């Protein structure tokens, strides 16, 4: 995987979404065929739905309007 991986995204990692607070489990790290970008395949713990997102988008910092803070947060963060 060539992209930055700020919190060691790996198979089996459980993460929480910053806005919905839902839990997801990382199933695989993959490569998008069209662009060659690193990707994360992850599954909702709530309904079993499977999603794919680029590693860059999965780990990016985003504004968090729900908190009322101007400090950005990670879109997904490890569940501890």
Structural summary, described in words:
It is built from one helix and seven strands. 6% of the residues lie in helices and 48% in strands. The mean pLDDT is 89. With 80 residues, the chain is mainly β. The protein has one domain (14-78): SH3 type barrels. The strands form two sheets. A five-stranded antiparallel beta sheet has the order 4-3-2-1-7. A two-stranded antiparallel ribbon has the order 5-6. The protein is globular, with a radius of gyration of 13 Å.
Please provide the count of β strands: 7
**CATH homologous superfamily classification:** DUF1653-like domain
What is the averaged pLDDT score? 89
Rg from Cα:
13 Å
**Euclidean distance between termini CA atoms:** 24 Å
**How are helices and strands ordered from N to C?**
EEEEHEEE
CATH topology: SH3 type barrels
- Distinct helical segment count: 1
Name some characteristics of this structure.
globular, 48% strand, 7 strands, single chain, SH3 type barrels, mainly beta, five-stranded antiparallel sheet, 80 residues, two-stranded antiparallel ribbon
Task: Set out the fold topology.
Blueprint: E1 14-17, E2 23-31, E3 38-44, E4 50-54, H1 55-59, E5 61-64, E6 69-74, E7 76-78
Antiparallel strand pairs: 1-2, 1-7, 2-3, 3-4, 5-6
Task: Characterize this entry briefly.
By secondary structure, this protein is mostly beta strands.
């Amino acid at each position: 995987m060539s992209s930055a991986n700020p919190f060691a995204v790996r198979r089996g990692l459980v993460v929480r979404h910053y806005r919905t607070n839902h839990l997801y489990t990382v199933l695989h790290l993959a490569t998008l065929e069209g662009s060659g970008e690193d990707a994360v395949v992850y599954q909702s713990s709530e309904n079993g739905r499977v999603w794919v997102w680029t590693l860059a988008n999965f780990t990016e910092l985003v504004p968090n309007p729900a908190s009322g803070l101007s400090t950005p947060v990670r879109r997904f963060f490890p569940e501890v």
